[in-house]
Amino acid sequence: MFDFVKDGLPARPGVGYKPQHFKSLLDDPGPVGWIEIHAENYMGAGGRPRAQLKHLAERFPVSVHGVGLSIGGEGRLDPDHLARLKDLCDWVEPASFSEHLAWSSHESAFLNDLLPLPYTEATLTRVADHIDEVQEVLGRRMLLENPSSYLAFAESTMSETDFLRGVVARTGCGLLLDVNNVFVSATNLHTSPQDYIADFLMDEVGEIHLGGHDEDEDDHGAPLLIDSHGREVADPVWALLDLTLVRSGPRPLLIEWDTDVPDWPVLRAETERADAALHLVAA
Q1: Which residues lie below 8 Å from residue 10, measured CB to CB, with a gap of 6+?
Q2: How far apart, in whole angstroms, are the C-alpha atoms of residue 257 and residue 197?
Q3: β-sheet bridge partners, residue 32
Q4: Which of 42, 198, 203, 266 has a C-alpha 20 to 30 A away from that of 106?
Q5: Is the dihedral of CA 186, 187, 189, 191 positive or negative?
Q6: pLDDT one-digit tens code per residue, 30-63
Q7: Are 252 and 9 in contact (CB under 8 A)?
Q8: Mind listing the pLDDT tens digit for each residue in 181-213?
Q9: 38: buried, middle or exposed (CB in 10 Å: 19+, 13-18, 0-12)?
């Protein structure tokens, strides 16, 4: 263990930054108190994306969210990818850095998805080793995000919440609690989202995320939810957020909307609803 920079976002609503909202964020941010970027979109040198981000970073704290490290992958982390990530974090000095509890690469193949893991001692050791390496290279604390799941592994020997608790104990990392992911997974796996929240290690939560999901059916006609980030947050997810905030207290709260991105007033309205939830629990 070592001393690293810890997350320091304000307990206010944030948004996943999209270039089409650049001017609106500067002119009409509403309750937005911070922004998130996907690391892989800013690993190039210079250009308009970095120029806009530099301008925004002078006004808003920035959270860097990685999607390509493949923390759960069986092989070693890609050293070139990790080096580019370090260069980005050294440049933007984010208030928070996070990645997913998932894998997305195998040997030289990179998959356009975040795939689930069995929760076993072997997986726990591998994930913890990878997180240790990331934190050592970056010199800062990492937050690990709970996944959205569409299946469960028969070989799992512990619950997801126990697995995350074990990762935190071994690495000193923090957690990113995605409430929509909790709801999606619980619906798909026929478990209780309320029980999951009750068992989650809230003291280590550095960010809470909300996003939209799509509704479908599996081959047997049962509900199947897809974590799409392409629409407004569903009412049952807002209700689960209220339950979460009762346990956690006010935390940095992100609205994710990554596909079919709406005009700024629609996204701002979601941040206003998030702001109201934060004010309610603070009161």
Answers
A1: 33, 34, 61, 252
A2: 23
A3: none
A4: 42
A5: positive
A6: 999 999 999 999 997 778 989 999 999 999 999 9
A7: yes
A8: 999 999 999 999 999 999 999 999 999 999 998
A9: middle
Cβ-proximal residues to 265 (8 Å cutoff; 6+ apart), any chain: none
Taking a C-beta distance cutoff of 8 angstroms, is the pair 174, 144 a contact? yes
Q: What is the pLDDT of residues 219-267, one digit of tens each?
A: 777 788 888 888 899 999 999 999 999 999 999 999 999 999 999 999 9
Alpha helices in 139-212 (DSSP H): 160-171, 179-189, 193-198
Express each pLDDT in 76-111 by its tens digit. Answer: 899 999 999 999 999 999 999 999 998 554 445 454
Provide Rg for the chain, Cα atoms: 18
* CA separation, residue 212 to residues 18, 54, 256, 270 (Å): 16, 28, 8, 11
CA separation for the pair 57, 255 (Å, rounded)? 18
Residue 153's pLDDT is 85
**Pairwise CA distance, residues 17 & 14, whole Å:** 9
| Residue 154 pLDDT level (bands cut at 50, 70, 90) | confident
Strands 96-100 and 143-145: parallel
Number of neighbours of residue 74 by Cβ within 10 angstroms: 12
For residue 110, CA distances in Å to 83, 114, 123, 134, 176 come to: 18, 10, 20, 19, 24
CB 53 within 8 A of CB 62: yes
β-strands 214-217, 205-211 pairing: unpaired
